[in-house]
From TrEMBL, chains A, B, C, D:
Source species taxonomy: Bacteria, Bacillati, Bacillota, Bacilli, Bacillales
Residue stretches making up the HD domain: 54-172
UniProt cross-references to InterPro entries, sorted A to Z: dGTPase-like, HD/PDEase_dom, HD_assoc_2, HD_domain
Annotated Gene3D superfamilies: Hypothetical protein af1432 (1.10.3210.10)
Native source organism of the sequence: Paenibacillus aestuarii
Protein name: HD domain-containing protein
Matching Pfam families: HD, HD_assoc_2
Amino acid sequence: MKEEKVFKDPVHKYIYVQDKTIWDLINTREFQRLRRVRQLGTSYLTFHGAEHSRFSHSLGVYEITRKIISQFERNHYEGWPQEERLLCLCAALLHDLGHGPFSHSIESAFGTRHEDWSCKIVLGDTEVNRVLSQVSPDFPKKVAGVICKSYHEEIVVSLVSSQLDADRMDYLLRDAYFTGVNYGTFDLERILRVIRPYKGHIVVKESGMHAVEDYLMSRYQMYWQVYFHPVTRSAEILLHKIFARAKHLYEDNYNFSFMVDPILHLIQNKLSLEDYLLLDESVMQTMLTFWCSENDSILVDLCRRFLDRKLYKYSTFEESSNKRVIQRMEQAMREAGFDPIYYMEIDFPSDLSYDVYRPGESDEKLPILLLDHREHLTEITHKSEIVRSISGIHMGAHHIYYPEELRERLSTTAYADLWALLGEQD
Amino acid sequence: MKEEKVFKDPVHKYIYVQDKTIWDLINTREFQRLRRVRQLGTSYLTFHGAEHSRFSHSLGVYEITRKIISQFERNHYEGWPQEERLLCLCAALLHDLGHGPFSHSIESAFGTRHEDWSCKIVLGDTEVNRVLSQVSPDFPKKVAGVICKSYHEEIVVSLVSSQLDADRMDYLLRDAYFTGVNYGTFDLERILRVIRPYKGHIVVKESGMHAVEDYLMSRYQMYWQVYFHPVTRSAEILLHKIFARAKHLYEDNYNFSFMVDPILHLIQNKLSLEDYLLLDESVMQTMLTFWCSENDSILVDLCRRFLDRKLYKYSTFEESSNKRVIQRMEQAMREAGFDPIYYMEIDFPSDLSYDVYRPGESDEKLPILLLDHREHLTEITHKSEIVRSISGIHMGAHHIYYPEELRERLSTTAYADLWALLGEQD
Amino acid sequence: MKEEKVFKDPVHKYIYVQDKTIWDLINTREFQRLRRVRQLGTSYLTFHGAEHSRFSHSLGVYEITRKIISQFERNHYEGWPQEERLLCLCAALLHDLGHGPFSHSIESAFGTRHEDWSCKIVLGDTEVNRVLSQVSPDFPKKVAGVICKSYHEEIVVSLVSSQLDADRMDYLLRDAYFTGVNYGTFDLERILRVIRPYKGHIVVKESGMHAVEDYLMSRYQMYWQVYFHPVTRSAEILLHKIFARAKHLYEDNYNFSFMVDPILHLIQNKLSLEDYLLLDESVMQTMLTFWCSENDSILVDLCRRFLDRKLYKYSTFEESSNKRVIQRMEQAMREAGFDPIYYMEIDFPSDLSYDVYRPGESDEKLPILLLDHREHLTEITHKSEIVRSISGIHMGAHHIYYPEELRERLSTTAYADLWALLGEQD
Amino acid sequence: MKEEKVFKDPVHKYIYVQDKTIWDLINTREFQRLRRVRQLGTSYLTFHGAEHSRFSHSLGVYEITRKIISQFERNHYEGWPQEERLLCLCAALLHDLGHGPFSHSIESAFGTRHEDWSCKIVLGDTEVNRVLSQVSPDFPKKVAGVICKSYHEEIVVSLVSSQLDADRMDYLLRDAYFTGVNYGTFDLERILRVIRPYKGHIVVKESGMHAVEDYLMSRYQMYWQVYFHPVTRSAEILLHKIFARAKHLYEDNYNFSFMVDPILHLIQNKLSLEDYLLLDESVMQTMLTFWCSENDSILVDLCRRFLDRKLYKYSTFEESSNKRVIQRMEQAMREAGFDPIYYMEIDFPSDLSYDVYRPGESDEKLPILLLDHREHLTEITHKSEIVRSISGIHMGAHHIYYPEELRERLSTTAYADLWALLGEQD
């Protein structure tokens, strides 16, 4: 490119684009679609500022990756494979390309996986694929490889996807900025200064351990205060229930007065790539709006609740009373005229899709390694008590979700035993 | 209320709700709808962070009003009519209730006015109306009066709508925060300390003049850098063209494969209140998505451009060459196969709906008055050279908007005279 | 006071003074003296921004206390003794009044205690005493009682001095701001919202536990990254050595060419209140400047090192090699011509005067209590794994400090065993 | 250097040192001395946060210069003389080296100039000179040339000293940060992106004009709100009076009980370089402290006022009543027992040493030039109405300073005419 281009960004001040390939990717139809998918799904119903899109996050992940590589190059670190620069940048930019609207709810309702869709878009008949192919015919495959973590150079994969990757660093800073909480504000510059490539890994200079502790503590706080927030979870549950009801109605041959192809194909489990690219949060929201006029009272009620933010209330309870709570709650539901299938949910925060730092567990991302001045590598929990303590913490309480009106509809005394088992809701 | 409630807000840290009426208003269907209307319309296509909603802005206006009143009460200022507190707070919260999706484009295409819709919602058969009526039967009318600036107490109106009102103070801070520019960051606390009620006006202590200068300079910068940004304007123009095309097709009895009632009624100019409340940015966006599959090539092309952010390019030109530029551009358009009605627009930024500070002009909001230690009131331009200079500045250049491909489609030499008349685009 | 007064403050934006007593206290000679004592002693040699004074911190502690009380009053909490308001505010403002220059070094060298001096100033023949006496004759005694933690109302003491007091909340935020690190930035507003008076204690609503965790994690990071920083410690050691040398010279009847009474009396251990009030960091710094021209080469060298920031280098070593390291280092010192009394120091960070959260240890401040919805109180480590983990962490490594030139002055091989025992310095 | 070094800085996050020469310069005695001279002189008596030193500002100027050069090199701009890089960095770092304590007061009292002292230090027998000489024998002279603006390459001079130089950019941001006002916060990154070398000048791309406007407006606000603040000025006047009194006493052969050589030589107007380097704010402050015990009641009173912040009050008056105000005030002074020589001062803010942007005036720094897309250069006031308006504004009101007690000491009616001529003090 003749000249650097910039995007104004509230988190990184500016995002610098120096390669024509990156510029062209940003201008593809598939990448622009990310403007219509919120980064935090239903969190905007808990934190009204959380209305930022996956588009801005994707630019941020790209920018952090660019900064890391630029620091590696400036310091002439040996372990850095310079020829992988553009591949890293493209994978960083595109790693979330396959995210659909309200991913958590849809993925759990229909079993789709956004990583698979990312690869399909990169490899399919798309503008993104055409831009990548101009670099070299096998370039789209390489990018897909990095996104799916099958690429042979671990160091490339770990920049985009590890316990200390550009993806997480951007989302912690960005989500903190837009929600307005200040837990996510670790010192990015300091992290950048203490990481380096070493024998195929990204490692952390031991003297930078406290910077990483700070980052992991930010993460811990963000999970509890933002990502696992029960109000957000309540909205996700409602969306899940709406899809479950729609699927049931479809199977019952109900005739929807509002229906568009991509949603129909989603329910039928036969989404094409073209369908998928039409699915954004606007379409979902519009569907909810017009399903408020359908003829099924349950579907109408659920959609109405979501739109008007009349979310389910939640209460905690002890694991030991699990069975009793469920049984009595189902009785209460039926007595009050609610179908428990659609009006009740039991939940553990640790079932959610965000992960905390638990090295050693299967399916875990690449761990964080410290490099000491004798060139030994040690996994961080062996050196940091604070990280060890965070890693070990068992996540969350049992929550039960149910309509706020439930209790009023029942006689005061009949379910006293149930309410006694439930803790306070804040 | 038993206990203060709070909302986490990135701009004001927390928003404090102390009255049940305010709490209930926030939970109405009509107020929740503001979550689905962006504060800055198409600006997110220029500044990707600008995805915040009118919901968050409305809470912010409420919060600033609450702080102002709390300061008036704490200082026991004589001129403050204490009985108007709740009225002020409700009007502050609800003043933007009637905003529809992409207001600027829709209002210019169909002649609707959001202030009118705000009053219709407050006075109509709505949840908002029911909450307000619980205060007193004539309370909805009073709130509508403040919003429409017809209420008899000027001081109440001017808190919500004047040159130094809670509305502007919030939007400058909020829009600066979400776009990431730092022009809008004046010292809110200082402004709050220097304003006070005085004989029916909100006035500024003369020693606080510099604080107001700073606020007006922020505003000046925000108008130029954000609100009047030609890329944002280009997207607005495109939306306007899409509506113009749809209206034309409707009048030609074109049969839309995707159509919903609220949009049909908008085109037919017979929107009901119920329709209007269904119109949000999701519905608009969904319409654009599915109109990409219509049978009219112009409509398809315009929608495609908007969704993929292939906006019209813009160039400046001198007022003196106005006629010549238009004439030659129309010729060029036709030669290249573009219908100038849909593919070309001339624009002056000062036509836009944001106003700068120009006391004395008709339709101007209440001016800013300084109160000196001898209790004289003076309009600020008489004391501040810097404000005088900002007020007098003539706004903007002539811009012409047209498709980027236009130039490539024409022979290099044929329109050399036209391109010579046009200045650089940044 | 006719009208609220404000101070512009970078941490709290504004500090509001509403009582004439507070205003008068700020304007006393003894309080103004705090402008000449840095909040963080020698830390400015590590973090060049850390040049802020105890004056600004004292205003900050006052402001946080004012906000807490205002919240208690606004919510009409039962457990709050309203008549203690002014006492709390005065004690908050004055609690650090007795701090002298470079407190840590001077207190360790001469055995003075700033708390004692605070009380002496409050009770002595001072402007502060005269202002306080105007409230009531026994008011100075009450204020001294709160500062020395002997006042009978625990709740008053704990606002100013406990594990979650206004003092710490201000210094974490302020020290983070001025050093530029961003570890100290917890959510003050949120903490304020979750604390309340309860049966004579300040307690935390259980649902606010995460806010307290965040505050304690900030504190943990600040201790490691700022307060325990070995470079700061190295400068403190140097000051301590300078005083030790001066005392030795004095006892040897050395005739100082630069000497002023307060320093002489400090060395003689017979400081009067009047002397103490003349002792500020300017006097200390001036003493160092002119002692560079004394006739004792050790004193000159030590002062020169401090002024030119040629601080001692530090290395870590294992506890097990403690004895060996000391023995060999002393040999090395002598061989290189350094007197180990002045040129060597062994140090454990946990000896320093900042404390972490360790409930149960003697001399511990009032612990943090959580109040659940059944009105039970629980000490926070019983509920929070993260706090438990922070509390248990054993503090720091062994450090040895010595002149950087030492190693060059010795033959390369002679002390290879010593250098092998010492870890890396960053 | 083997590895980049960093300083933590609150304004720029980190300051990066990449050259051994820079590292060595920072570690010289003369540069470390800047830690003991406040950046804003007496401003800390107005804004208690303004306790930052010239040391931190000098690092900041260096860092901005480093960023500008790095951007020039990254973009391979033709007009940039690459061989001047180290010279620019050294001059940027050292340009304030000659600043003494409370420069404004001392320079006006004794006619010294900090620029001259900077050059003397660079060229004299100093550690700084020795470090610079290692680059090349004539390097110290070159550095001094840039600092004194006599160096032949205008572009090098203008990076360090022009209307848009690294010096001002750092001090606006830094002074805003430490005082806590938010006027100084322009968009540094954006300015860096729009400046470039062009035919021996640093120029601004025309499309960046608004960024420069924003910077100049920040400057305008900072001058009025911070640099010209009358309370700061009042403290400067007091210091000036103290020196005037001391000089008078010296000429009268008064025998000072506290005196050190550098101050004596300052009064005698025969300061050596060695003396000058001992003069820092600690020495000055210590002098004030001990002069409170001298035998001259005027000197004691003036020093006491400064230390206890009992500054002179100020009032505005109209230019037309100039003569009358002075005459009557002198009468009032004498009647109340104040010597007007030491207890009264007339002042115009525009006499102060900060300059605003006034191109064309003699002694003006290099102006700001805009470069348009046709490669024409235009001075910014010809294009920007807002800059034109700021440049033309006549600075400030007449102020008279006098002891607060003056009025109380006089009969209520005797000077009613004088008080009527004076405006309000805030």
